[in-house]
Amino acid sequence: MTYLMFFYSLNVKLIADRTKENKAMKKDAHSSCEHCPSKNDGIFCNMNLAELEDISQHKITNKYKKGQTLFVQGTHPFGLYCISTGNIKLTRTGIDGKESIVRIVHAGDILGHRSLFTDEDFGKTATAMEDTEVCFIDKKYILSLIEKNPSVALNIINKLSRDMGNAENKLTSLHQKNVRERLAELLLSLKTTHGTKEGNRWRIDLKLTREEMATMIGTANETLIRFMTEFKDAGIIEQEGKIIYIIDEEELLNWANIHY
């Protein structure tokens, strides 16, 4: 009962906060999908100009500050979220009240699609990790759009399939790999999604706390710090402030026990 009351009070507070934010937040209700910086990576990448304009007239674009919440675990979905810019973390709170990062999504990704089609409550909480721009499309319109445009349905299926594959890989990693291997694998994954090449090294353009990284690989904060130090001492990574650089990708692959 305590667990349910916690989420109920959290959801009531979220609704109140979002009402205040929506009044104060500068909205661009019909910002053009044609000029979206993530259009080519999104589910509407195959749409023509007229179709994009129609979507633009049926969506609302919101800007979220770092730490603001898009939706909370346990609430009901009313539409689809398309990320235009920024990074968002998806977290799940267990019955013990502990929060774990399940996934990090970025520009071009969508949120709420699984819950939308299963008509289930959100299984995770979505929180902006930085200033983020997200477009919201209500359920009725997105479902009608899918019926009329098979390419949108295929792109959503593609994202669902990749999400499932990533979830399976993460589960396998947690069961079959040690902490050192999981940390190396996490760094390689972040390089793929948020990496920028700088000469002979890769800069990871995502600032994560040690606590956040620890929850992502299922270990204690102290253990993560110990292995990060080990990686740095081995010359595999460097760190400047909160920015992580991968120096030796090949060796990191060996430590992650990944073979292509």
From TrEMBL:
It holds the Pfam family HTH_Crp_2. Residues 43-163 form the Cyclic nucleotide-binding domain. Residues 177-250 form the HTH crp-type domain. The keyword Zinc does not apply. Gene3D superfamilies: Jelly Rolls, Winged helix-like DNA-binding domain superfamily/Winged helix DNA-binding domain. SUPFAM superfamilies: cAMP-binding domain-like (SSF51206), Winged helix' DNA-binding domain (SSF46785). One of its GO terms (molecular function) is DNA-binding transcription factor activity. GO terms for cellular component: cytosol. The keyword Transmembrane does not apply. Keywords: DNA-binding, Transcription, Transcription regulation. Signal peptide: none annotated. This is Crp/Fnr family transcriptional regulator. The lineage of its organism: Bacteria, Pseudomonadati, Bdellovibrionota, Bacteriovoracia, Bacteriovoracales.
